[in-house]
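ok posting inputs for the pyridoxal-5'-phosphate job
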Amino acid sequence: MEALALRDPTAAPVAGRFGRHGGRFVPEPLIPACEEVEVAFAEAWADAGFRADLAWLLSRYAGRPTPLTPALRLSTELGVTVLLKREDLAHTGSHKINNVLGQALLARRMGKRRLLAETGAGMHGVATATAGALLGLPVTVFMGERDVERQAHNVFRMRLLGAQVVPVRSGSRTLKDATSEAMRHWVSVTEEAYYCVGSVIGPHPYPWMVRQLQAVIGQEARHQCAEQLPAGTPEHVVACVGGGSNAAGAFAGFVDTSARLVGVEAAGGAGAARGEIGVLHGFQSLFLQDEQGQIREARSAAAGLDYPGVGPEHAHLRDLGRAEYVTATDEEALAAAVRLARAEGIVPAIESAHALAWVIRAAGTTELPTGSSVLVTLSGRGDKDIATLMTYLGDGEAE
Amino acid sequence: MTSLETRLRLRRDRGRKLLMPYLTGGVTPDWTDHLRALADAGADAIEVGIPFSDPTLDGVTIQEASDVALCRGATTAGILADLSRSRIDVPVVVSTYANLALRRGADRFCRALADAGVQGLIVPDLPLEEAGSTGAAARAANVDLALLASPATPARRLRDIAERSRGFVYAVSLMGTTGERNQLAASAAGLARRLRGVTDRPVFLGFGISTPAQAAAAARDADGVIVGAALMRRLLDGADPASTAGFVRSLRAALDGVPARTAADAGG
Ligand SMILES: Cc1ncc(COP(=O)(O)O)c(C=O)c1O
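and the output
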């Protein structure tokens, strides 16, 4: 089994495998549901009518294509050409909507009557609540209690959109436990409910399906880079990695170019950079775990990166050496968010700020030499993080 | 040593309804006293859970038991060491999640089970497609890897599961997680009957079986029952080994009142 992801970036992986990663490690009661999603998505994806419906929603409803913005002042300051793929400008304020519109259309096509989702930062929950409202499907979102507290803004948005938010009190009370609880609930409602997974994680076909739905980021960016960059393609493609969906989408557009692919994880949730092979939430990949194999709790100021693992395709890209995975600390990410706000008038999500933090740190070194070009996915906007940024800056400095 | 499956078949064929209580390894300092008490109270096998940080198929009770055990420092090696010292003469079936079974490789894990005298293994997140190498490792170590079947499993797949399962087939009585329920799930009887139609291996119903009456009802169609959360809740509430044994005796008595399958029923 060699580079499936490299040979044909769009082909469905055999048995859901990305090299030694991926698969379908779910209890028997969930197998028929996974198979149903797999068959339905394969059919839908091959159906021009479905693709046209999705394209229509992405442009008329979600605001695609999103711009590619040259970060002019930041570029001058850093001595590298920084291009921002503006997922923060997509409807609901992050890339999550790309995935959710596809899956919600699929759910409707499958005759499902409601949507389930897990969420960390709340952006996937908000996107799912939005798609549910649009298509008339009731939505239940599982969210760790700790995230309910620190992303209160998004909790209210979900409720405003008519979704039910279920706080999860087990374990670390963050994304990992929200995902476990969503899976527990899914078992009991597979007939009527569709589980809308928020990243390139979970049992086959989710990691593949979510990457296909997010590939629009990379496809658009590739065309836009061809127009804006003298060289046509950027030398570096950088994105933050929680489960890895915005990165997978960006990488999909450049995996067959010579661009260097860099995923930036939270220092406290670095599944790809520091994890070991294991199985959780239905897939085999790299996870933070102790000697015994108990999963370690991630810790990050970015709720969306607070996950101890990484999607199987990223683990595979790392095995192949095709992509690299690095980390940024909370402090670096918060500083990068403030810097972007002041240099470009764009307040990024703290998740997205991790990608910028690496660019800022690496610029002018051999990692990112002066004069080189870098495409950064700005995966979401920072409104949800205002309270965290206020605490970080202190009241005085913000004035 | 006689295999788990042989032992279960012998008892079943003598007309006995089988009882497999579940106990989370390491949940209390005296957990092996509970183990011995369950064995003496009429268990035909005992399922011992090795606790995992993220038990995605378990409801609140077994989640709590897992947390308690992990906080007490329970480890795979520690639980297996306790088991090899406890020397009960009822077969032990270990259940755990894939991440723990695969952590040091399935071969090493299965050999460690065998060395501790464990005869069976359940890994709920290793379905048919992912169970191949662990199944081979278990066979090499003379450990029976039992597979799960569910009410949603289609007919062909049910046959494959019954064929590849060893020891017994674990019939998940309902679409849901472990945990006590007020009633035996409506889906339980149908699944047990479908399984008995395709296999002669012992069929155990589990998930949600909470009372002696429910156990008896389940055993009308299955060869045996697995009772987990109802027992673990008692234990978490502070039951001593004598009272967990009392609960298991009440299950045993209810099962002994269920008529055995007739020869005409068997396998069909
Ligand atoms: C803005 C933003 N970026 C990134 C992520 C991380 O997800 P992924 O790695 O799947 O892109 C999240 C998740 O909540 C998010 O809200």
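notes: The domain at 3-253 of chain B is CATH 3.20.20.70 (TIM Barrel). The mean pLDDT of chain B is 96.
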